[in-house]
């Protein structure tokens, strides 16, 4: 789950990232966002296979300190001069979150998450988006590491 083709969820659709400008700094952001440890490499040329849908990001330029790939500079969403033979990939060192975590899903398909019915955007009941529908997360096996994944994904510290 900590190595593969980089895909992002935008406008209710998964899409790939072009390898134009893709480097270890971008990989570092992805590894941090997915709680997968250090970035080891940032392969391009569709090393992990070609995507099939839209190419969302091109000419991405990260400093390495962003908390999410969406914070990196890039062309406008969906604007690109790429093809899927240029899909970006990442190899991270490992997975610091608990292996059986309810939120530790296949890394390229991490679910959009939100918190509802709380006092603010960083507290509340956890819900995830799947098949265009929001649903709650069961607390069986839920622990502090799972909460840390949610907080990181929402940029809530």
From TrEMBL:
| Cysteine disulfide partners in this protein | 18-82, 31-92, 62-72
Q: This protein is called what? A: DMBT1 protein
| PROSITE patterns tied to this protein | SRCR_2
Signal peptide positions (record):
none
Q: Does the keyword Repeat apply?
A: yes
Q: What is its main location?
A: secreted
Annotated GO biological processes are: zymogen activation
Pinpoint the SRCR domain residues. 1-93, 113-157
């Amino acid at each position: 789950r900590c190595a593969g083709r980089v895909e992002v969820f935008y406008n209710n659709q998964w899409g790939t990232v072009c390898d134009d400008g893709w480097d270890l700094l971008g990989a570092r952001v992805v590894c941090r966002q997915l709680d997968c440890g250090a970035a080891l490499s940032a392969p391009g040329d569709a090393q992990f296979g070609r995507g099939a849908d839209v190419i969302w990001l091109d000419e991405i330029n990260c400093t390495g300190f962003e908390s999410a790939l969406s914070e990196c500079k890039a062309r406008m969403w969906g604007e690109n001069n790429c093809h899927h033979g240029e899909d970006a990939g990442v190899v991270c060192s490992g997975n610091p979150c608990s292996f059986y975590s309810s939120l530790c899903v296949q890394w390229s398909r991490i679910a959009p998450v939100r918190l509802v019915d709380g006092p603010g955007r960083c507290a509340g009941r956890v819900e995830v988006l799947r098949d265009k529908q929001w649903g709650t997360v069961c607390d069986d096996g839920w622990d502090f590491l799972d909460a840390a994944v949610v907080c990181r994904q929402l940029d809530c510290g």
